[in-house]
Amino acid sequence: MGWDVTPGRHDWPTLIAAKDKEIGRLSDAYLANLRKAGAVIHDGRARLLDPHTVEVAGQRVTAGTILIATGGAPHRPEVPGAELMISSDEAFHLPAMPASLVIVGGGYIGVEFAHIFAGLGAQVTLVHRRERVLPGFDDDLRAVVEDGLVRAGIRVIAGDEPHGVERTGDGLALALGSTTITASAVMAATGRWANTAGLGLADVGITVGERGAIPVDAWSRTAVPHIYAVGDVTGHAALTPVAIREGHAFADSVFGGKPTSVPHELVPTAVFCLPAAASVGLSEPAAVARGHAVTVYATRFKPMRHALTGRDERTFIKLVVETGTRRVLGLHMVGDDAPEIVQAAAIALTMGATKDDFDRTFALHPTVAEELVLMR
Description:
The chain is an alpha+beta fold. It is 26% helix and 24% strand. The chain has helices spanning 12-36, 108-119, 139-151, 240-255, 284-289, 304-309, 338-350, 355-359; strands at 46-50, 53-56, 59-62, 66-68, 72-74, 100-104, 123-128, 155-158, 162-168, 171-176, 180-183, 185-188, 192-194, 227-229, 269-271, 277-281, 294-301, 315-322, 328-334. Strand 18 (315-322) and strand 19 (328-334) form a beta hairpin.
């Protein structure tokens, strides 16, 4: 189309400085809002001394109601040398951008960071123990995302896991079941566990579950009725909007006089890979496992914009529909603006839209999203 594009250059220290500045701005804004609301802030690590007392920074604070919202923390594989691995928490604190990186784990964090560092110029290898990345997502979406990793120049090793990490020369050697890989750095992206260690939960009658998660009911109550927990610490979907909704429901229920529970169905979610992936509702295997008879509508195409750019970018869209009622049970997408499109479509699924509702909706042409209402 006549453009002459000059390759750019990336400066790692500038990125880190900008990141630190933005995180500082956000943190200061949150603290300012808390103080404006009249909250008293105690900085320090907290521990429950009894069901109504919290000790923090040498002070004891008592309350009739306690809310635990300590989030999650990165989990490293339990192998020799695991302490040599970085996690996503340390990735943007490195003094220099690694020339090569091995990422262990094929979930959200692993896939996103593989694209980030590959985009910045690193040689990236992604190792995951399953057949496909993104466990829990629809199988067809997973295949498309893994294809995108390969097309981005990322080496993908499936069905393998780490046995140990050692220092070697200027880098690290990661031993797998099938081979050994050397790289400047190794990242553990094997999930985040509930940040509950050292909180004194057992002393007050709360027993944590898998990955340290605090069991709660639909009202976010723990086994101790006046102690509540919300967000990643509960083991629910580790997503910011879920934590916010649970916190809001807690406030409404306990202090607002408006009892509110939080259903965890139809939570839209996105993986910010390239191109991005997004999903809401049931995957095809999950729908079948729940006893639904399903009809699947799927399409994969090259968006019109890339007919101009010449880039080999494909968009994938899949609708999982209950055969009898025609209700749309799930939407799964990979492509440009997938998170934006799925967020809007999630409204329709939440309202119980059917495939016929989609079919009688006019298309907005030329867009990627129009395929939602054109699939037959």
